[in-house]
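Purpose: get a first structural picture of the assembly so the mutagenesis plan has something to point at.
Setup: three entries, given in the order below. No constraints added.
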Amino acid sequence: MKTRTWYLLAGVVVLAAMLITACQPQVQTVVVTVPPEIKEVEVTVPVPVTPEEEEGLGAQCTYNAYRMGWVMDYADANNIVNEVFHPDSPFQYTFWDDQTFRDLVDQALVETDAAAREALWQQAEQILVTDYAAVVPIFHYDRTGLVNPDIEYEFPPFGAPHFMKWRLPEGRDTLRVRLGTEPPTLDVNLATDTTSHMVLNQLMEPLYRYKGDGTIEPAGAESYEVSEDGTVYTIHLRQDATWSDGEPVLAQHYVDGILRLLNPETAAEYSYVMWYISGAEAYNLGETDDPSTVGVRAVDDYTLEITLDKPQAFFDSILAFFTTYPIRLDVIEQYGDAWTEPGNFVGNGPYVLTEWAHEDHLTIEKNPNYHDADQVTIERVEFPIIVEDATALAAYERGELDVSGYPSEELPRILEEMPEHFVRMPRPGTYYIGLNTALGATQNLNFRKALASSIDKRAILDAVLNMPWRVEACGVIPPEIPGYQGCGKVGYQFDLDAAQQYLQAAMEELGVTDPGEITIQLWFNRGNEDVIEAVEEQWETNLGINVNVVNMEWGAYLEVLDSCND
Amino acid sequence: MGLSASERAKRHEEEQFLERGVSLWQDAWHRLLRNRMAVAGLIFVGILVFCALTADFLPPYSYREADYENTRIGPRWPDHIFGTDKLGRDVFSRVWWGTRVSLTVAIVGSLTSLIIGVTYGSISGYIGGRVDNLMMRFVDVMYGFPTLLFIILIMVVLPSENAIQGMINIFIAIGVVGWMGMARLIRGQFLSLREKEFVLAAKMVGASHARIIARHLLPNSLGPAIVSLTLGIPGLILTEATLSFIGLGVPPPIPSWGQMVSEGWRGLRATPHLTIFPGLAITLTMLAFNFLGDGLRDALDPTMRGTALVRAARRKRRKARRAAARAAKA
Amino acid sequence: MQRFILRRILWNIPVLILITVVTFGMMQIVPGGPFTAGSSGRPIPPEIRANMMAKYGLDKPVWQQYLNYMGRLILHFDFGPSLRRPGRTVNQMLFGGNFLVDVLREHLRDEFGTAASSMTFAEPPSIFDSKALVVKTNGEPVAYIYITWRDRFEAVKRFLTLAPVMVSAQVGLVSVTLALLIGIPLGIISALKQNTWIDYVAMFISMLGVSIPNFILGIVLILVFALWLGWLPTYGWGESWKQVIMPAITLGTGGMAFIARLTRASMLEVIRADYIRTARAKGLAERVVVLRHALKNSLIPVTTVLGPMMAAWLTGSFLVEWVFSIGGIGKFFVSAVTDRDYTLIMGTILIYSVALVLFNLAVDIAYGFIDPRIRFD
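Result (structure tokens, whole complex):
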């Protein structure tokens, strides 16, 4: 009997141990800490030493550096300098702060003169990237893929292509475009990803749209006026626009679209983009449930009026963003959640959804009711869903697809064997490493500068990624965006001597004699092994410090970073 | 008995041989050595262990030494015989180093499941009755989870602050999903052995529970456990490759075969050497462990017990007889 | 027999419930939630995340969420809405939704033409109903539509061919069949020819089958048969028999090798048994001995592993569905976790565990047929 009890106990202990090992959420690790007083030795611009409160840093927030990227939504530096890197932004985890930067951003937001605005963004970028070295940009994105060379194509820099402008070779009327995943949703207010918008862009028409050269042209709108003070936008809609079921497109449909986006019950991810509209934030956050407090209204059937809190010089870019799609509340009411299914979906774009075999393929066909239907020459677009890049490439090479992706591992062969199929299009955005200015060695400005100037970005692009055409980044504003400064004018270039000098200064300040005593944690999410392994290797080789890489799966990564940033 | 004198002598010799009291393991070892495929497997595993132990100083390059001037070059004599990868690291050295990681993942992973499984299974099988029933219900619950999904959940829950921890996570994940089979196996063995005469005899003599388990039950059920372990190791190497495919494998820059293969397979046409060499390593290792496992199973099979020694004795005698004949001729 | 089956099923109910509890608990521990990152891949600002959590009731206490979920599941067989596919339910993602609605809608379209698009059903029709009430969008009744046997048959047929769970089952079934058809004969032959070159070749081939990772086998097949030889289509399922071949080989090879080795081992054991010796001594032909006496008994271990194997394969293989772009449910076993789609995680785990329970039960019953000595107490 006694023995049996003993066995039972042992069993319980084993089970408990398993549970504990399986459930223990965090293990604390030791990081090199530095004395709090930091002296500035080699400073070019007087930078106030920011006293960093470490309250937000929980036990798991041991990162010194983290990888992140941002693909821009519209052509204004606001979308990256302010929305991503502002000290209060939810998208950055560097704990940096600077009053001059805040003031510059506030000025830039209301500045309507393009040149003056550009200059303000540039100054703000200087403070962030050069003076604080809080962010180490690595390269600027672009969009690459495979397109059948017989096809005339056009990719705008923002959003998805408009297939109504594409032309197939003689004798063909169906375009086959590979989708990498099932579109998460075709609900115009909820879709935020590129796959959904690849399809939605054909089914819907926004007020304005981007052309291939990056300029904006009217689509659902004809023109707009801005009031003297820059806060009221009056948009005149085209009167020949109809929905795919024949109903005319009215200003109220646009109002409905924006209000449904902002309705907290819709829980739309991109609702914050419209917070510039007066009353929008309060309505979206549930502070009021009266939609009439939002500054959007239909003056008449074909005139839309949007009132902003304060002038926003870039708001015309937002008019071309998918957050302004009109919607048909009657259709949504009729079909409920199933309104995005073929047969139910009613759009105002050049195509209609005719087939959606989930997880398999979608088909869209020309909308005869579209106001510009004469200009649409491609009768049908088929979207087979092929998740694996290698499979998609094989299918493309077999001629089963007209537009496809490719696995980056095959890039050298593609460039050699089928260069005429390979297309490269602008996609403004920046791939960067953020530095934690509140923890360990990266608290030290000179150390951050040393990190920033010891990455051979060119080698990473040329050799590791095999994309020699990509632009190495020194600042965060991409080259396609007004305000781009380029290497040498902003940030840090690869310079081993400078890196050593910064490192020496940093070591003096940190009271360290051997760089090997410094260990930093570099966090990244899976899928970025190529770049991060190279960065890690270069930091270790060029600076002699220890770099501990931690890779996490995207969901966990964001959660942990987020919890540190609260 | 119609045995001739010589036959009787032969019998006698065999019996003598058996009476010398060879242990189960010694006997099994002898039989294992007679299996050519198993020996080949054993030698290959030996080579792997050697590679794993010398990974730090024998390979021509470090597993992480980058060379941005020479990325993705094909096999080239004599400096990069397996070519280089996207960072210009030597694939040969990385495959060598990967031996250590893959072998450790497989062996530690299966040891984890062995320890948990044996403990759990023997408790359940020895106590029996209601406790057994309850414990087996728990195993049913664990079985009810899809393995892959469960491993992913565990890997996501566990933090990985550095490479070592990342590897430990894989051990835990593999151990946590792998022990149920082992527990069932050991429990089954215990249940059937419990009623065997020699165990009953030991009980009658008054042996303690610990002694019965340690001296009688465990040794007799360990054979099948070891076989299933050896046959399970290749599966674990593949599991690790699958985890790498999803992106949950061994954290870089530490190389494992599975990780190298899952990084390279998409470029099978552009850079085949990145897939073929680590892939070959996986395949050969799996073959070796499978042959070894099959050999072990045959060797540890109790119905075959003694046959190897008897055959060895026969062979020895035949040899001696031939030698004698030759000597006589001369 | 009936009592045995009933008891087994009853035993499994608490097991299944415990599985749901553990899964629900584990999902809470996993860092990151369904709304940490948006489908755009960007982090979601906390205020907006709060809106989303409220929309799906995730702001309530965990026990309440669990009870709500289980209540809906048990009472209405409703797996809840997918958290990462707005507008879609887990039922649709797993079972393809209500196919009868599609069938009846086609009738409506034939009858009413374009006006049919503004009509719906008062209640979702089921194949057990005899008629369904058709109403206009404003609720005004239009007509009764009678559900014929042909409609029911058509709906079931569509479910069997189109539902994601059935697509996975088809892939799995073809692969299992392939594995058994090749694996068992291979095992028998190499057991009968033990330690000859036939044995070695057969075992070498089968070991090779286990040791190649599925995704590599898949891409090699695509390159060879689709791209270079051009015989087979690259991806997809259900449009032509040619699409079946490569997924079946990819998934089937591993199992085939496993079954071959298992058959060989148990066959070796069986042919040494006394009753086989007796059968031979009786002067029966070797073929009869092997096929009638030895084979049946050596299949018992194969049957045992077949339960979990069928459960795993028929609920979809992640790798095969990924590489060949097959719209089954296998992909969800990974994507549900990486997306933190809680309801989908629950759905996939439940499908798997129910399949496991059913197939193990089937195996137990099959024992009775193979070996009459095994009785159900």
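The radius of gyration of chain C is 26 Å.
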